[in-house]
Amino acid sequence: MPPAQRTKVVCDDGLIAAPAPGPAPAAPAGVRRMLAAWLRLESAVAIGGLGVAAALLTLDILARELLGPLARATGVSVLGQLPPGLSRYALYGILVSAFAGFAVASATGFHLGSGLGGVPVPRWLERHRDRLGDLLTALVFAAFTWYAARFVLASFESGARASFLSWPAWPIQAAMPLAFGASAVRFGCFAAWPALRPARRVAFG
CA 172, CA 180: separation in Å to the nearest integer? Predict the structure, then answer.
C-alpha cells in the first residue's frame, strides 16, 4: 500500500499553512466522571447557599413586617426567639453560593471565556489557540488558588472570627481556594482533552 500523501496548502504570502488538526484525544472515563461529580457538588452548594440565604431573608422580613405588628397588637412577642440580624447570616450563604456558582459557570461555558482572544500567535500555533488559552487560564487560576489558600491559612492561624457571628472565618473563606482550585483543574483538563471543553455560551444577548 503506498504511503499516505500529505497535501500542502500554500497561503497567499507564500508560507505553508499548518495542517488541519487531527481528532482530539479522548478523555479517560475516570476524568469525565470526576468532573461530572464535582460539577454536581458545586451545583448543589450553589443552590443550597442561595436557598438558605433566601429562607433567612424571608424569615427576617416576616419577623419585621408581620410578627412585629402582631406582637404589638397582642402583647405576645415571639421575636425574642429569633436570632438578630438574620440578613447578615444570609450574606455568608450568598458568598459561598457565589464562589460555587463561579466554578459552575466555568464548567458549563457561561464565563468570560478562556482562550487567547485577539492576541496574535504564530500560524503554526493557530490550531492550538484554544488549548493554549485553556492552559493559560488554568495557570492563572492555580495562582489564585495559591494566594487564596495562603489567605485562608493566615486566617486560621490568627484565629480570625466572622464579624457579629463569633464563628471562625476560615471555613467560609475556604470557598475561595476550593472554587479557584476546581477551576484550575478543570481548565487543565480542557487543555489536555479538548473534547471536555463546553461550548462557549453567553447568558445575555
Answer: 14
